[in-house]
Design brief:
The chain is an alpha+beta fold and 394 residues long. The protein contains six helices and nine strands; from the N terminus they run ααααβββαββββββα. The longest helix has 52 residues, at 17-68. The relative contact order is 0.15.
């Protein structure tokens, strides 16, 4: 038997280079198509978690009112036990420096009793003379105050801020900012003090000039129609870069009569639309130059939402003057360029496309669209304005 051998080379099985490139191209196309869907699904989950955080915060508020027959405000030392005492808000007076936030007072109502019990409400929340007493609690990150779509804050408390961890050797270097994505709403105003009669659900209690807190009976617009807590983007802690959530300090106490350290012109629509739009224009015009100069931290305040303990604008208080993610920047009117304890506009903002989450006073949580009308925002922020609105308005 003869065996014949073919002179032709045997072809090895496998992919050619062109076939391999085609397969890679197909995979790349599929990834490009699927990745946005995956990212969208992840964002939807984060948005749902954020909404749930606000829902829990709203329920805690309702439970607090049910137990105390009053809503928590931003209080100074001892005021939570003696609403009509003459003690104000720390060594710096009633501006908000040293006041306790509504967030701190609600800790015991959503499984944060350990943190609540570690706080000493008989002294100021944020004072350079607190001797570091509040450090352990106030450097605790509370997940319920953090939106999962947000970045965490950078930086540490120091001598110039309130925690003063330098008093406690083992805490040195560990006094991180905790972060806070949810503000207590004072309504459509730039003045949070009770002496200015803000229209929203919260205020900074000023016992020498005004009565104490109010209860559900005072929410005449209905608890389901009144924003209690809202969402904001946390600051980027970089005063050399202009970001949408930065708070621009105009280094003045008022703009064309708007502000005026809590006159009636500080509330919309009482202040009048021309005054308000003039104020907005000044804020927008001042934003680009806020990142210039060696002392730009005074005009570009990039630490929005750095912590949850202090009852002050920029820390735990905000307003409803504009819809979510507005084209106008947040704005502060502090003539000496210090902290946020001055007339301030801080609005809803978020990383969620199309709007931001809020908690209503009845404990429900809603998503407010960025396209909502200004007057609807003023109505949603008001507890007793007598407005008539429906869910279709926002």
């Amino acid at each position: 038997m003869k065996i014949h051998h073919s002179s032709r080379p045997r072809r090895l099985s496998g992919f050619t280079l062109i076939e391999l490139l085609v397969v890679i191209a197909i995979i790349a196309v599929l990834i490009a198509l699927l990745l946005p869907a995956v990212q969208s699904a992840r964002e939807a989950a984060r948005r749902a978690q954020c909404l749930n955080n606000l829902h829990q915060l709203g329920l805690a508020l309702a439970n607090y009112e049910s137990s105390n027959n009053a809503y928590p405000m931003a209080y100074g030392q001892r005021a939570i036990w003696d609403p009509f005492n003459t003690v104000c808000c720390g060594t710096a007076g009633c501006s908000g420096w040293g006041a306790w936030s509504p967030h701190a007072l609600l800790l015991g109502y959503f499984e944060q009793s350990q943190v609540y019990n570690a706080l000493n409400f008989s002294i100021a929340s944020s004072d350079n003379e607190d001797g570091g007493v509040q450090c352990t609690a106030l450097t605790t990150r509370v997940a319920s105050f953090l939106c999962p779509s947000s970045t965490l804050p950078s930086g540490l408390f120091n001598w110039g801020c309130r925690c003063c961890c330098a008093y406690i050797p083992w805490m040195a270097g560990n006094c991180r900012f905790t972060g806070n994505n949810y503000f207590a709403s004072v309504g459509a105003t730039v003045c949070p003090w009770t002496s200015a009669k803000p229209p929203g659900m919260f205020a900074i209690y000023t016992p020498r000039t005004s009565p104490g807190s109010f209860g559900v009976r005072d929410v005449q617009d209905g608890t389901s129609n009144t924003i209690a807590f809202g969402e904001w983007k946390m600051g980027d802690f970089d005063s050399s870069k202009l970001s949408p959530q930065d708070v621009i300090d105009l280094l003045t106490n008022s703009v064309g009569g708007f502000g005026s350290w809590c006159s009636p012109n500080s509330t919309m629509p009482t202040g009048g639309l021309p005054r308000f739009t003039n104020f907005l224009s000044k804020c927008a015009g001042a934003a680009p130059s806020s990142i210039l100069g060696g002392s730009n931290w005074k005009t570009n305040k990039s630490s929005l939402g750095r912590e949850w303990g202090q009852g002050m604008f920029g820390h735990t208080l905000g307003g409803t003057l504009l819809p979510p993610n507005p084209k106008y920047p947040n704005c502060n009117m502090e003539s000496w360029g210090g902290d946020f304890d001055a007339p301030t506009m801080i609005n809803l903002s978020s990383y969620h496309p199309g709007g931001a989450n809020v908690a209503m006073a009845d404990g429900s949580a809603r998503f407010i669209k960025s396209t909502v009308q200004w007057n609807t925002m003023w109505s949603l922020g008001s507890r007793a304005g007598g407005e008539s609105i429906s869910s279709s308005d926002y």
